[in-house]
From TrEMBL:
Keywords: NADP, Oxidoreductase, Pantothenate biosynthesis. This is 2-dehydropantoate 2-reductase. SUPFAM superfamilies: 6-phosphogluconate dehydrogenase C-terminal domain-like, NAD(P)-binding Rossmann-fold domains. One of its GO terms (cellular component) is cytoplasm. The keyword Protein biosynthesis does not apply. It comes from Pseudoclavibacter endophyticus. Its EC number is 1.1.1.169. Residues 174-316 form the Ketopantoate reductase C-terminal domain. Belongs to the ketopantoate reductase family. It catalyses: (R)-pantoate + NADP(+) = 2-dehydropantoate + NADPH + H(+). It holds the Pfam family ApbA_C.
Amino acid sequence: MRIGVIGAGGVGGAFAARLQQAGHDVSIAARSWTADAIATDGVQLTGEFGSFTARFDAVSTVLPAGVELALLATKVHDAKLALTANRERLRGVPLVVMQNGLGGLDIAARVLGGAHELFGALTLFAVTNRGQGRIHVTAGGETFLGAGREAPSPSALAIAAELDRGLPTRAIENFRGAMWTKLLINHVNAIPAITGCSVQEVSADPALCRILTRSMRETIAVGRAIGVRFAPLGKLGVVDIRALEHLPLGLAMAVPRRLGASFGPVPNYASTLQSIRRGQQTEIDELNGRVAALGRQHGVPTPVNRMLTAFVHRVERTGEFLSPGVLSRLVER
Ligand SMILES: NC(=O)C1=CN([C@@H]2O[C@H](COP(=O)(O)OP(=O)(O)OC[C@H]3O[C@@H](n4cnc5c(N)ncnc54)[C@H](OP(=O)(O)O)[C@@H]3O)[C@@H](O)[C@H]2O)C=CC1
Ligand SMILES: CC(C)(CO)C(=O)C(=O)O
């Protein structure tokens, strides 16, 4: 199949390399400096999904004509520009939006039109983008594909099967509920971005894990106020979400502690801290920031998500991390 990947960073680069290796005809649209590096040296994949270099004939700032399926793997805030540049090439081509947060599919529908065939994909593997096509997968995990609230359509099943040839991918029902569960999982992103600690260090540290748990509880409350039906996703089952919601805080902390440990022994710094280290804008406004905005809209208090969002922006501006002790004093005072 002719597959076009827009945004060849961590997630896009890993999929591009593995799909090409599996025999698909993959082309890449990247920003010029990354496109130049990949055109010369290919995508160099290391870690959990194997170590090899994938070379691509078509690497440019826009996709070539003739693509049959497209994947969008930019950060959410880069989606509008990337899709606008590729709009002509995407006419009639199903698009899979591989992004965290809740907003990517809406942006794609606005740019490409509400009738465009759109799917979302939630990726549970953890990947470090070392720049210029060098991609290191620190923990394996499945990708879940879908759209809306219903059971997967025949085309969702067919697309998931094509992607599954490269990396483990499954079509699921209640994709909207799964997006919210992934948003909960991505609460592991903010504290590493504020402190410089890994996800595993945060979840193993009682004071930091307490903040993480509080932020997740706020998000469940916001989701409930909106009528979200959280779907089980990877290591976070419906029972875990109920435990997070209803158990006393000290006991509920077991859920994020397990979630952090599930990323395995290699430190996972998550995509938000990686953006800071590369001097790029983070997606925090689409993660904890989105929860805070929805909380305001629906009258649900979200003080921890508001603070975490503000602290990530502070680190973005200053480049200075807060120590775990200072962060917990500021949040818990
Ligand atoms: N990293 C992870 O472990 C995971 C990330 N995610 C989610 O996946 C999505 C992608 O994240 P991730 O791969 O980490 O991000 P990266 O920043 O590593 O990759 C994004 C890529 O998009 C490129 N890009 C930006 N604008 C354009 C454009 N206009 N045209 C073409 N390419 C463009 C960037 O280019 P440049 O190289 O120039 O910066 C970069 O290579 C995010 O929503 C993230 O939250 C989901 C699960 C796991
Ligand atoms: C799953 C996780 C937390 C992997 O690191 C991720 O989605 C991210 O880093 O944004």
